[in-house]
């Protein structure tokens, strides 16, 4: 998994995980699933490394925390990247299945993996797969929130199961170890085991009624609202 040409840093904020991935040769990078409370940390890291932020990428519309994409756009000039199904009005580049996002000499391949949300994606960089909430370590994203669909989640997980077992997965939330591999998840993740039966998987996902995320309404309001009101500081306009 080591590659001297790729800069990689995992940033933890409570249960949320975000990632800075960069090209060491050209000193450019992207931030994947940035969380608002870590905005200053991202910017400080980029300044220390003399990296230029090209893109702020959300793997999906988050319903449990506020994305930092808008702030990174206004503070650094980065372009915001999301799937074309995203409702966020501040997205600059809307991507779809199979497209590549270039960051220096790094290629980021987009997989459209709806189910947790309609705009859910996974992003493949070498042997690292950033899975957002599509596939978690020991679980998967819930399907009872806006845009959720248990059958599509089943199809997306089945598709991921067909990829190379040696791929390392990095989700947007950390409930277990820092990372895993697809092979390990196929063997130990109860949700991945359920994809042997479409009917059982859909029944399991649709019969669950977990409580709404604590920040559900405020997170969706922020992540779906335009840029107005945030230019003067990262806490304004909330």
Describe the model.
With 238 residues, the protein is an alpha/beta fold. It has a single domain, classed as Ribonuclease Z/Hydroxyacylglutathione hydrolase-like (Metallo-beta-lactamase, Chain A, 4-Layer Sandwich), CATH 3.60.15. It has helices at residues 39-49, 69-76, 150-161, 182-188, 190-194, 198-207, 216-223, and strands at 6-13, 16-23, 28-32, 52-57, 79-83, 93-95, 100-103, 106-112, 121-125, 128-132, 135-136, 139-140, 168-171, 180-181. The strands form three sheets. Strands 1-2-3-4-5-6 form a six-stranded mixed sheet, with helices on one face. Strands 7-8-9-10-13-14 form a six-stranded mixed sheet. β9 (121-125) and β10 form a beta hairpin. Mean pLDDT is 89; it is low at 229-238.
Quick structural overview:
The chain has helices at about 40-50, 70-75, 150-160, 180-190, 190-195, 200-205, 215-225, and strands at about 5-15, 15-25, 30, 50-55, 80-85, 95, 100-105, 105-110, 120-125, 130, 135, 140, 170, 180. It has seven helices and 14 strands.
């Amino acid at each position: 998994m080591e590659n001297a040409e790729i800069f990689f840093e995992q940033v933890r904020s409570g249960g949320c995980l975000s990632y800075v991935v960069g090209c060491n040769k050209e000193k450019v990078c992207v931030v994947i699933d940035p969380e608002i409370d870590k905005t200053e940390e991202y910017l400080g890291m980029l300044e220390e490394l003399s990296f230029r932020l090209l893109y702020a990428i959300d793997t999906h519309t988050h319903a449990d925390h506020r994305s930092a994409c808008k702030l990174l756009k206004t503070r650094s000039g980065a372009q915001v990247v999301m799937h074309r199904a995203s409702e966020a009005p501040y997205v600059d580049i809307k991507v779809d299945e199979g497209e590549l996002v270039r960051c220096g000499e790094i290629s980021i391949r987009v997989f459209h993996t709806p189910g947790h949300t309609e705009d859910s994606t996974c992003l493949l960089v070498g042997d690292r797969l950033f899975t957002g909430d599509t596939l978690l370590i020991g679980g998967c994203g819930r399907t009872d929130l806006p845009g959720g669909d248990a059958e599509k989640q089943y199809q997306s997980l089945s598709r991921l199961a067909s990829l190379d077992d040696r791929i390392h997965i990095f989700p947007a939330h950390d409930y277990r170890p820092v990372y895993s591999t697809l092979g390990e998840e196929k063997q130990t993740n109860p949700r991945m085991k359920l994809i042997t039966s479409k009917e059982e998987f859909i029944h399991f996902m649709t019969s669950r009624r977990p409580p709404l995320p604590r920040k559900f309404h405020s997170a969706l309001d922020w992540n779906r609202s335009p840029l107005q009101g945030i230019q003067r500081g990262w806490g304004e306009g909330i």
